[in-house]
Amino acid sequence: MTTITAPSAAPVPGAPASRTGRAGAGPWLAFARGRLIGLAAVFLVLLVLSFLIVQLIPGDPAVAIAGPDATAEDIAAIRGTLGLDRPILTQFLDYAGGVLTGDLGDSFQYRQPVETIIGNRLPFTAVLALHGIVVVLLVAVPVGMAVAIATRGGRRRWLDTAFGALTGFLDSVPGYIMATFLVVLFASGVGVLPLLPPAYSPGDPNLSLILPVTALAVGPACTIARVVRRETAVVLGHDYMRTARGWRLRPGTLHLKYALPNLLTTTLTLSGLILSGMLGGALIIENVFALPGLGSGIIKAILDRDYPVIQGMVLVIGMIAALVHLVVDVLLALVDSRNLGGAHGD
Amino acid sequence: MRSTRPRPPLVAVVLLVALAPLTGCLSARGADGSATDTVNAALGTDPSTFDPALGSASDDYTADRLLYDTLTRRDNEGLAAGLATDWEAVSAAEFVFTIRPGATCSDGTPVSPTVVADSLTRFADPDTGSPGRTLALGRGEATFTPDDEAGTVTVELTENWADLPIGLSLPQTGIVCPAGLADPEGLAAGTVEGAFSGPYTLARATPAVSYEFALREEYDAWPDFAEPLTGTAPATLVFTPYADPSTRATQLLSGVLDVASFPDENIGRFENNDSFSVDMVHALSTYLLFNEREGSVFADAPELRRAVAQALDPEAFTQVVTNGRGQVLRSVGSSALPCANTDTSLLPGHDPEAAGEVLDGVTIRFVGTIGVDQGNEYAAEVLRNAGADIELRNLDNAQWSEITSGGGGDWDLTIQADFNVVGSLPSSLLRVMGPPTEDGGRSKTGADNEEGYGALLEAMSTTEQDARCQALRRAQESFLQRVDAAPLAGLAEASVAADGVSIRALGDYIDPATIRIVG
């Protein structure tokens, strides 16, 4: 997992240096150009795939909309109204043209613009995911580092074993069990934490978010804590850290200034993947906590054969994931300018 | 209405202090447990439209029932007066409805016979494409003639349909006021403020999040139920979609919700709990349904159909799919439906040995809906044990409906799950006899059962109850003896209300407009 060569990635005590200052504007321009081309390519691929995916879903949207009591004529009429009787190529060109002008179409089920449907659901997922990733980082990085520091050089083996067992166990608990356990224990059982009220607005900070955020964050926090613990142990073993300790630097300075930066590449990369997964929809958590987010939305759209909503959500979720990775890449480049070339740890 | 339950104070304070920075601030919603004039209820999913004529699912009907009044209303025993205070059957093809005086639309427009006739004319128009048209009006054409002076609407049908008064209790026949008829798109979106004839208006609709209904202050056209409603109609009804019944149950138990319904084992979480009232209905019927079209193994094979029916024990099936809460059926509809068969001698009976002799080595293409997947799996295993080669496909509703209603011979057997929204036997009988789906009918069997369908038509041509029941019994006897279908279980659905709130189940129909704040 470790991808660093510590002496050049971290500031050597007594030898201040700017890692980004020497890079100049050239690499950044190339970086921006490459990422923009990448984003455009992702967009085009998503555009085509999101259209093709819905064609592969078995079942007729008109049947899903018409309901069990509809006649064949009713269903045929609905197919015509939805434009499903047109050639596939015509449908794709209409779809692509609409997307390029910012129009994702109208939901078959809701008869409302897809942007509105996504706009209703995205804030729930965003609030959940952003709180989740903040909790993950706030918990996992200090805990992982603390355990690595406490167990450096083979000391306190019991702690290392306990840490590994506990994080391994919590990480292996499926989301629906963790979520249900938290609900049963803290909401239905002891009753110390509330569930989300009806008509909850995701803009309102609310104690009810604690349980879903916890359920969402426990697994990823354990994953990142284990990675941070391992990365920290490797960094602490490098010569420059031994030198720093020899200079009797204070532990805070030693670990935060000289160890932490070398953990960020791996941690941020992994966090970006986790965040894009969370934004893509934490279906189980949303279901258990009755959060109308993107995860439950896309499943409902698939069951309803609501093609425009499926396409819109796949497109939006895909682009969000691409943007999250872009932000992570920018952060990594700011941490270490060698990442501008895309070859982390060179 | 209810709010979150009292929490252990010390632990709560500690947690609040510890966790407040994480969340920004604290929720105070309903923290004092005080009564409000708002009731929080659950939907299974979002309503797909607010145009009542186009409603096709139970959550559509929930919204329609609140927003639009119908001429008649389901009651425990038959019908209650809705927007029509009285009705008379001149014949099975002509009915006169007396419209309730003083009823108004949400924009103040009087609900006159002309308003009623215009709305029903649109409903009956094939171009409107209402999935409830044939259920309410039969297969013929309908003409609605208003007489504003007499306060009546006369309905004339080109084909007999004695069930018309029952049909006009369907939520899809809800009366749309002139403002709604003038703006069909706005009507479907629920944005036409003057479209509503029912007790509530749609105050806010946020798909996937919530739907808020506001009580009309001037509304006074409540139905005349045999047992009058008690309590107060909530000023605001907030419906939140919860797809997962377990989540819905947890929300109800924790005080977030006041009313919800459950079709599954979550019912058990409320039984013997004094804080909740539970009403059970059996509107969803399940039965074996055989495809008798060319290409199916069951075409012209009554003995094979009988063998399949004999292999399955309806009582065991009911136990499996409803955990004993369901109803063992004797027909294709609930035993509570008027004229439903009660004669067990007409049923194939459970005889696995006889079934095994016929089924051994027979390949059966079994398509099932995931709505009753436990039942599908159980039936498939029973038939395999009887020696049949079962190819089971558990599909979601859209796929299942497309295949079983498509009129093809590419499937043999299904377990039909039939939601009898009308509350009348003929709507379920038309699933197993009469015009097939490919010809615009409702029959999925494709069976050519002239005798049974003839009896059904006879029943629909008389308004005399005894004669109607006799004909319906002959129709049931016919399909049962032919084994076009074999009754299994009436699935239980529980309507659960928390203390302080009530909701009425009327004749196997949970009526959301009967939600009341009580006590």
Structure description:
The complex is a heterodimer of chains A (346) and B (519). Chain A is mostly helical and 346 residues long. Chain A has helices at residues 6-9, 26-56, 61-66, 72-82, 88-100, 114-150, 157-172, 175-189, 210-236, 239-246, 251-259, 261-279, 283-288, 294-304, 307-335. With 519 residues, chain B is α+β, with helices and mostly antiparallel strands. Chain B has 2 domains: 2-271 and 499-517, D-Maltodextrin-Binding Protein, domain 2 (3-Layer(aba) Sandwich), CATH 3.40.190; 284-492, Dipeptide-binding Protein, Domain 3 (Dipeptide-binding Protein, domain 3), CATH 3.10.105.10. Chain B has helices at 9-23, 58-67, 113-124, 133-137, 164-167, 178-181, 184-189, 245-253, 302-311, 314-322, 352-359, 373-385, 397-404, 425-429, 450-459, 465-482, and strands spanning 38-43, 72-74, 79-81, 84-91, 94-99, 142-147, 152-157, 200-206, 210-215, 236-241, 259-262, 276-290, 327-328, 363-369, 389-395, 413-419, 485-498, 501-506, 509-517. In chain B, β4 and β5 (94-99) form a beta hairpin. In chain B, α9 packs across α11 (352-359), α10 (314-322) packs antiparallel against α12 and α15 (450-459) runs antiparallel to α16. Chain B is globular. Residues 1-35 of chain B have low confidence and may be disordered. At the A-B interface, α3, α4, α6, α8 and α14 of A face α1, α7, β10, α8 and α13 of B. Chain A: Residues 122-332 form the ABC transmembrane type-1 domain.
- Count up the helices of chain B: 16
Largest β-sheet summary of chain B: 7 strands, mixed
Amino- and carboxy-terminal Cα gap of chain A = 14 Å
What is the CATH level 1 assignment of the domain at 122-333 in chain A? Mainly Alpha
Approximately how much helix is present in the residues of chain A? 55-70%
Strand count of chain A: 0
The separation of the N and C termini of chain B measures: 12 Å
- Count of DSSP strands of chain B: 19
Oligomer: heterodimer
